[in-house]
Amino acid sequence: MTVLAKASSSVSALKVIDESSLDFALLNVELQDGTSYPVAKRLKALEIPFVFFTSFEKSEIDLEFHDVPRLAKPQDARFVADFVAGLMKTLAQTPTHPAKRKEASTGV
């Protein structure tokens, strides 16, 4: 598993999305410039799966994103890595996941 970028603001996270090819994102709800909801909206529009990694309770997350998985902070780094790896494995087997569509279109 490779971490492409770390962004501490919505502005920098949106720039990463626009300039990179992401398979998955791990988002904190609270960033330096506000919430990550604009980032979450962009990820949803691009069909890039993501998880909120946050200390926010599910009830504190905007209703628009109640279907997004939430991983509660704090967590051990190994647990987070295993969680993300397991999720990526599941997503890779899903025909609608962008990585799977790329695979089908390139014949890889």
Structural overview:
This protein is an alpha/beta fold. It has one domain: Rossmann fold, CATH 3.40.50.2300. The protein is 41% helix and 14% strand. It is built from four helices and five strands. It has helices spanning 10-19, 37-45, 77-92, 98-106, and strands at 25-27, 30-31, 34-35, 50-54, 70-72. The strands form two sheets. It has a three-stranded parallel β-sheet, with helices on one face. Strands 2-3 form a two-stranded antiparallel sheet. Helix 1 runs parallel beside helix 2 (37-45). The relative contact order is 0.15. The model is unreliable at 99-108 (pLDDT under 50).
Q: What series of H and E elements makes up the topology?
A: HEEEHEEHH
Instruction: Return the structural class.
Output: alpha/beta
Largest sheet: 3 strands, parallel
Helix content: 40-55%
Report strand %. Answer: 5-15%
Number of helices: 4
CA(first)-CA(last) distance: 19 Å
How many β-strand stretches?
5
> Which strand order spans the largest sheet, edge to edge or round the barrel?
1-4-5
CATH class: Alpha Beta
Total domain count: 1
Please identify, by name, the CATH architecture: 3-Layer(aba) Sandwich
Going by CATH, what is the homologous superfamily?
Answer: Response regulator
Give me the CATH fold name.
Rossmann fold
* General shape: globular
Rounded to an integer in angstroms, the radius of gyration calculated over CA atoms is: 14 Å
**What ranges have pLDDT less than 50 throughout 5 or more consecutive residues?**
99-108
InterPro entries: CheY-like_superfamily (IPR011006)
Protein name: Response regulatory domain-containing protein
Organism: Sulfitobacter indolifex HEL-45
